[in-house]
Each structure stands twice: as structure tokens, then as C-alpha cells.
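User: Sequence for Tripartite-type tricarboxylate transporter receptor subunit TctC below. C-alpha cells please.
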Amino acid sequence: MHSYTARAASAALAACLMLAASFAPAATGTFPDKPLRLVVPFSPGGGTDLVARAVSLGMAQALGQPVVVDNKPGGGTIIGTDNVAKSAPDGYTLVIATFAHAVNPSLQPKLPYDTDKAFAPVVMLGRSPNVLVVRAESPYKTVQDVVQAAKNQPGKLSFASQGPGTSAHLAGELFKSLAKVDLTHIPYKGAGPAITDLLGGQVDLMFATASAVGNLLEGGKLRALGVTTAARSTSADLAKVPTIAESGVPGYVAESWYGLFVPAGTPAPVIAKLNAAATKAANSEAFRKRAEAEGLTIATGTPEDFARYVRGEEARWGKVVKDAHISLN
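Assistant: C-alpha cells for Tripartite-type tricarboxylate transporter receptor subunit TctC:
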């Protein structure tokens, strides 16, 4: 009886081990089997939020599960990004990362996570210029108008951003450095509230993402003075807007970008599924129309492509931050 019991127990254990061995790949194969969460580290209404909501719809169709957008603003994207860094590495939680993801390590020496080790890249979604904008009633008609006013009254002109370390912030700091002017930075918890105050006259200007201000430019509520990229935008709405470099600030180049990360340790097959779904979503007709209208150039690729790009951005902006003595303290 004892021998039979031992054999039965051994057989049961072997069956359990076989089941456990087969379960992991099966789980990966059925991913996803519940809704996903896409964290946006900004308030609703800004460019990043708009891009996230647009891509989430296409991803949901491709994956067969809802992709719920979860806004977690604050800390120059650190609050929302940290939430994802501490989430389970199972593919169900993603963050839409921006310029701030690459520059925060240079600006914030005490991040609650190690940017290079806490995340796994999924895919780049697109790149776009920032646009130096003022409200329609502003007396400033050109980039040189802003430069001259800032030189006449140092520190009086203010520029808004969607948070410390974001593209709008660093684009402004780079402008200050290269144009040799003093502007006052006013940070917000997202592009939405920043643009609201810009329209209301509480701040003078903003180096906003093209996706955040496209509709307002088209509607005549904001005026574009210059784009931050090396060449003029191919967007119909921005094609006639000069670059800041050609407007009298030589060497000025900056751009925004959007991409997806998951927590480090997420299985490669899961990342591959997410990459395929996001790539399909970003290249869909619906997303493409939205992107082109807002000055966003779609630029998908492999996770490795995205990782190389972000490493390059970290190195380039780390040097800018150091050389310009930019500090958030």
C-alpha cells in the first residue's frame, strides 16, 4: 500500500510539473486575456494624451482587449513613469514615454527608478517638432520679436511647459542658452493646463508639441512663430512656419517623440505582440490622419530601434543640460 501511495504521489508530482512547464508558454500564447493599462504621465488634453488615446484604440482592435488610458501626471512625468516601473512585468501595463524619459536622468539625479534598467522598449510611435506659439492677440509676430523683448526686459517674459524636464521645458532652456536671453519657466502638470493659461494670458509663450496645439493653430487661437526641428515641418499647417534656427538662433534643434515602454522583465513574446499591435495601430489610416493633422511623423520599428534612439537622446541632451548648466533646483 505504501509503495502504491508513493508511486501515485510521484505520478501526481510529475503531472503537476508537466502542467507547470506547459503553462508559461501557453499563457504567453494567449496574451492578452484581460484589459491593458496605458499610463500617460500627463494630465488629459495635451499632445501625449491625444496620441495615447489614438493609439490605444488601434491596439485594442489588434489585441482583442480594451486598452485603458490612465492619466498619472506630476513630477515632470516621474510619478506616472515610476508607477509603471513598479508594475508587474506581464505586458498589461505600459507607459507612453516622451522626450522627458530620456532627459530626466540628467536633470534628476535621484530618480526613484533606474531609467536604463527599469524598462523594456516596445516601439517608437512618432516624432514631431515643438512649435514656439503665442496667443493670437500677442504683440510678438516673429522669433526675433521674442528675442528682442526678452533682451529689453530680462526675466519678464514667461514660457509654459507641461512639466519640468519635458520637451517644452528643455526647448525653452535651449532657446535661452543659444539666444542669450532670460525667460521665466512656468511648469504645469500637462500641456492641457499650460495651454489654458497661455490662451488666458497668464503666460506669454510656449514651445508646445505640435500635436498639442494643432487644432488651436488651425482655429486661429494661437500663432506659430517657429518650429524647433532642423528643417521645416512637412505638415500642411506648419509648412510655412520657419525654423527657429533660420529665424536668428543658429544651431537650434529639438524634437518631441512618443514611444511605448513596459517594465523590465516582460517576456519577449509579449513585447513582440505589443510591438506588432502598436505598429499596426500607428500605421492605420485613422491614426495616420490624426498624426499628419498634428505634425507628427509616424516612425515605428523594432524594440531595438527604439532603444538605440532613446540612448542617443539621453547622450545628446545630457550634454546640453551639462553645457547649459540647466538645473531644476
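Residues 1-6, 8-27 have pLDDT under 50 and may be disordered.
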